[in-house]
């Protein structure tokens, strides 16, 4: 049996009781490393979640703060909770590569195997195309391997903490990092549609955890960029840049549009601040991960809730 287990948000304790029971029963435990660092801040900010988790649970922070070392700290916390000696990390390449994912599925034919994903097992999947976690489940079903999905919280439902009603959200979008040569604005029409319907727009912000460096790929070598998490500030800056590029007479939003910046959703130190785009762009939201909500038409209850988060 293959158990695809959502770990929720915040830290290793976000897993449900059902998920924890399943993991403890499994002979092998894999973790999807590409999204693993969503549970941790990856910068050197003293209030980062990794620093707090490690201090509170008596683990020593690594002196060299590499991606691999940070991940080892988080895995150590998981091992302590699950009672497992080893949590084997499966990177996105392991899942996307047919040979490597087949290894997981072969083991699942004769034993219980857990595959852990931060948030909801499918909560981070893009709406189009064959995605990592869905692809693994599809392959399992084709091989007649039993699959059990155990869900948990994700940003898609935890964002309700900002005070806006979940049924009043429209299509969620992902804001990608702009480069000098590529500034994609394909998400703009979804914002237009949501605004026209009076719906809120959840903006998921881009993450580059293990992106290949193009100049090395050209030489036939594999080298990876350092991890980058988009901030609320960068997202707003790029959204406003899209307006300049498009030059529309009646844009879907502007600097005065009400938005909500959210950081470290589901953690003990989550931060939620509402205000105009022009003011939120200069606010320090602290360590990642971040997301942004473009507010649509609001009810009286939503307006009352937003007052608690309004920027001073």
TrEMBL record:
GO terms for molecular function: diphthine methyl ester synthase activity. S-adenosyl-L-methionine binds at residues 9, 123, 154-155, 205, 265, 290. Signal peptide: none annotated. One of its GO terms (biological process) is methylation. Keywords: Methyltransferase, S-adenosyl-L-methionine, Transferase. Its EC number is 2.1.1.314. InterPro entries: 4pyrrol_Mease, 4pyrrol_Methylase_sf, 4pyrrole_Mease_sub1, 4pyrrole_Mease_sub2, Dphthn_synthase. Pathway: Protein modification; peptidyl-diphthamide biosynthesis. Residues 1-280 form the Tetrapyrrole methylase domain. Pfam families: TP_methylase (PF00590). Transmembrane segments: none annotated. It catalyses: 2-[(3S)-amino-3-carboxypropyl]-L-histidyl-[translation elongation factor 2] + 4 S-adenosyl-L-methionine = diphthine methyl ester-[translation elongation factor 2] + 4 S-adenosyl-L-homocysteine + 3 H(+). Belongs to the diphthine synthase family. S-adenosyl-L-methionine-dependent methyltransferase that catalyzes four methylations of the modified target histidine residue in translation elongation factor 2 (EF-2), to form an intermediate called diphthine methyl ester. The four successive methylation reactions represent the second step of diphthamide biosynthesis. PANTHER family: DIPHTHINE METHYL ESTER SYNTHASE, DIPHTHINE SYNTHASE. NCBIfam families: dph5 (TIGR00522). This is diphthine methyl ester synthase.
């Amino acid at each position: 049996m293959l158990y695809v287990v959502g770990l929720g948000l915040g830290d290793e304790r976000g897993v449900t009781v059902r998920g924890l029971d399943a993991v403890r029963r499994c002979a092998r435990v894999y973790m999807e490393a590409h999204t693993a660092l969503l549970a941790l801040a990856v910068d050197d900010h003293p209030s980062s979640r990794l620093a707090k988790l490690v201090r509170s649970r008596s683990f020593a922070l690594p002196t060299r703060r590499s991606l691999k070392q940070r991940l080892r700290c988080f895995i150590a916390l998981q091992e302590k909770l699950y009672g497992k000696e080893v949590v084997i990390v499966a990177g996105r390449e392991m899942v996307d590569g047919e040979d490597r994912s087949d290894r997981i599925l072969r083991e699942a034919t004769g034993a219980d195997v857990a595959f852990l994903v931060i948030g909801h097992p499918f909560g981070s999947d893009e709406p189009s195309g064959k995605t990592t976690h869905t692809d693994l489940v599809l392959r399992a079903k084709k091989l007649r391997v039993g699959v059990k999905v155990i869900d948990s919280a994700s940003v898609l439902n935890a964002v309700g903490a900002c005070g806006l009603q979940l049924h009043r959200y429209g299509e969620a979008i992902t804001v990608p990092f702009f480069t000098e040569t590529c500034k994609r604005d394909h998400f703009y029409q979804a914002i237009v549609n949501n605004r026209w319907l009076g719906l809120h727009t959840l903006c998921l912000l881009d993450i580059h955890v293990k992106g290949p460096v193009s100049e090395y790929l050209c030489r036939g070598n594999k080298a990876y960029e350092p991890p980058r998490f988009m901030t609320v500030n960068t997202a707003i800056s790029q959204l406003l840049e899209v307006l300049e590029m498009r030059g529309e007479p009646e844009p879907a939003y502007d600097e005065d549009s009400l938005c909500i910046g959210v950081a470290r959703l589901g953690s003990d130190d989550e931060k939620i601040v509402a205000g105009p785009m022009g003011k939120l762009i200069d606010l320090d939201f602290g360590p990642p991960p971040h997301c942004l909500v473009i507010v649509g038409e609001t009810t009286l209850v939503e307006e009352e809730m937003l007052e608690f988060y309004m920027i001073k």
